[in-house]
């Protein structure tokens, strides 16, 4: 646990009450190490989205404890959770979730605004990160002026701008064509190669194959936890067929 | 730091839907402008009345006959006919008694007033129905602050001899001889068919919109008694000027003491009444104040409706931007920053509306309403500004809270 970014101890999430009770997660325990690239897969209704919400501190667990970067999230109030999301986690969503009518650079710098970073510094850092995802030239474009792949790269830049301990991606390629999907996954791999911890939720096995560890969910349980490569191994160096 | 950010986010929110923001702003604008204009009209009217009464003299008392004869209340079932013939008249002797420096030290001067109704002035082809027709002595002019535009007043001798001379007001002169009002001096005009020579034209006092103080003809009291009221020694009223506005009450008491003794009455059965301008002023002020409050209340209701409009639009905005709120929360926006973003957005709308409304109020108050120039009150401007800020806060707090309370996962899932 000492090096774990994520540590869940018998976490359950229960929706509804009594008769209508649904256990979306049923006593799940898992640890994810720093620098790992983990794919969480499962059919819809398997509990993987609930897992993502809990890992992302968007929702609380009904039972069990969740430590993120050594912090017990169960004891935090709403304001502190907002700060955790801001400082520790970078979100990437299936449908990008950029703020409309707002320039790419402003979208990227928004988490820094909530972190209280000065305007000028914010812009500099946002431009830096946009450059690292190859979109420096599109900094002043609005989301509607960007392609899906570009929008997702802006979203990744936004997720990275606070330098979080965890990059949490929910079906990051779900709304993209094959070419853009590969570009995004390549980007994830190079981020991982640079030591980023990435948790990616997906239902496509070929996408999951790009990760180092694949965790399969079914009916709220982990039914398979398969390590493809070492924690820090780079798939481009050690290509392993699934 | 964060406030500056919230303002920037809020501004982009306002700009995102310009038409809607403008229309919502318009609701506040109209509300604030109407409050300012209507209160300005009220203040303008009130000030005009005060100014007019001030021109008539603030230290003036009017002694007039009581139309309901005295002794009635004391007499109970007794026949009224007998009391009517009692000395209910005000006479020149009464007037002379009021200038007694020992009995009435606070009285400066007096003037008799004999009035007649329905007097028509004619000059060549022009006719004019005179609103105020007064028979008096020259002291009337100084008491009622009447200045001459041309010619001269009539003399004390004219007043007692009943010389056929008249001093006419600006409006009367204008109707009879046209815009060159001063040319009326020396002309012979007919008042109800009887010839009078115009000896002077009064300087205009300006209209207050309610009645025109320039629509007046002043002639010697004895001429009025001879030719208009039928000869009798009685006066319609006596105009008394106190030494200063501060001694009005003392002057009134002195007048009542003298007249009570002369008419042999007590405070219970007085056959005359003393009114002072201060009382008239108070009555007029109270009336206009009531009117102003009513107007202000109507305007206030339109402002309230504007405020509800702000709330309505903010609720729509929050619903429409549920997803954005979810994104912001996911990337670390706290409840406080979401609240301040939406609260500032409603504040911006209502404050812009308020400021434009103040400008609109000033513009609208530049034009006379019913002959009265509205006067914008400073306090209404400050009040409007504060009220529009309050509207932004009060009507913005519920939508802003609603936005902040959204759970990020619900908001993100919202389509």
TrEMBL record, chain A:
GO molecular function annotation: ATP binding; ATP hydrolysis activity; transmembrane transporter activity
InterPro entries in the record: AAA+_ATPase, ABC_transporter-like_ATP-bd, ABC_transporter-like_CS, ABC_transpr_LolD-like, MacB-like_ATP-bd, P-loop_NTPase
Domain ABC transporter: 6-242
Native source species: Arthrobacter terricola
Domain of life: Bacteria
UniProt entry keywords in alphabetical sequence: ATP-binding, Nucleotide-binding, Transport
SMART domains referenced in this protein's UniProt entry, alphabetically: AAA
This protein's GO CC annotations: membrane protein complex; plasma membrane
Name under which the protein is recorded: ABC transporter ATP-binding protein
TrEMBL record, chain B:
Protein name per UniProt: FtsX-like permease family protein
Domain named ABC3 transporter permease C-terminal: residues: 297-407
Localization (cell): Cell membrane
Keywords: Cell membrane, Membrane, Transmembrane, Transmembrane helix
Native species: Arthrobacter terricola
Superkingdom of origin: Bacteria
InterPro entries: ABC3_permease_C, MacB_PCD, Macrolide_Exporter_MacB
PANTHER family with a match to the protein in the record: ABC TRANSPORTER PERMEASE YTRF, MEMBRANE COMPONENT OF TRANSPORTER-RELATED
TM stretches of this protein: 293-318, 338-364, 376-398
Domain MacB-like periplasmic core: start-end pairs: 21-256
Similarity comment: family membership: Belongs to the ABC-4 integral membrane protein family.
Principal location class: membrane
Protein's membrane topology: Multi-pass membrane protein
GO MF term list: transmembrane transporter activity
